[in-house]
Amino acid sequence: MLNIETKKNQPDLIGGMAKSFSRRKFLGVMGAGSALVVVAASCKKTNLGNNNGGVDLGSGDVGVLNYAYALEQLEAAFYMQVVASPYSQISDMEKSYLTDIRDHEIAHREFFKAALGSKAIQALEVNFSAIDFTSRTSVLGTAKAFEDLGVSAYNGAGKLLVNPDYLTIAGKIVSVEARHAAWVRDAITPGSFADMSAVNAMGLDMERKPDDVLAIASAFLKTKINASNLPTS
């Protein structure tokens, strides 16, 4: 499969991933991640550890996959907490969808961990102190921002990959992330799943460079990330 060290286990990984993504209902599109941008506006870029210290993502395709793995760790940790301690008066439907999203993000996280093998970065320590997990507004607002950020991250990183197999898988994952983003947007404001804050005039999702994405994500990570060796083109 995409295991960087060996392709021996390739069919099992792909099959397991496809099975995870076949579960129930899901939707489609992206957005601006403005809430996270606001939260991270005061964060210094040195939080990424680009110059000193921090967990080194690596270089080439390994670095790009570790970058995706880091983001999936963050998303999985968020949804695990959301489902473990649901916000006040959560509906059965919302809990069901959020549980599906949790399962998808865990599948993404475990996929990258297995594919990277010994080259995978460590488990990251998160910081969710700014999120009120008892509040629907806080949880769904953060979910929207995380999903929008994730879509823009995959869109921005796809062109950095060399191996076409990795690009194919990234395309499959970003489509699922966009479905998440669409549902969360509609849960907050019905009919907003593909409005002009989600899709530009050409009908395209936005993209962000890794440094810009990690500057935002670092507000929710205690672990510093060193992205200095990632490819830039």
Secondary structure topology:
Layout lengths: L9 H12 L12 H7 L14 E2 L3 H25 L7 H25 L19 H22 L6 H25 L21 H8 L7 E2 L7
Parallel strand pairs: 1-2
Helix pairs in contact: 1-4, 2-5, 3-4, 3-5, 4-6, 5-6
CATH class: Mainly Alpha
Q: Helical residue percent?
A: 40-55%
The oligomeric state of the chains shown is single chain
Element-by-element helix/strand order: HHEHHHHHE
CATH topology-level name: Ferritin
CATH H level, superfamily name? Ferritin, core subunit, four-helix bundle
* Low-confidence regions: 6-51
Shape: globular
For the termini, the CA-CA separation is: 25 Å
What structural category characterises the helix and strand content? mainly alpha
Average pLDDT score: 83
Notes on the protein architecture:
The chain has a single domain, classed as Ferritin, core subunit, four-helix bundle (Ferritin), CATH 1.20.1260. The protein has seven helices and two strands; from the N terminus they run ααβαααααβ. α1 packs antiparallel against α4, α2 packs across α5 and α3 packs antiparallel against α4. It starts with 9 loop residues before the first helix and ends in a 7-residue tail after the last strand. About 20% of the residues have low confidence.
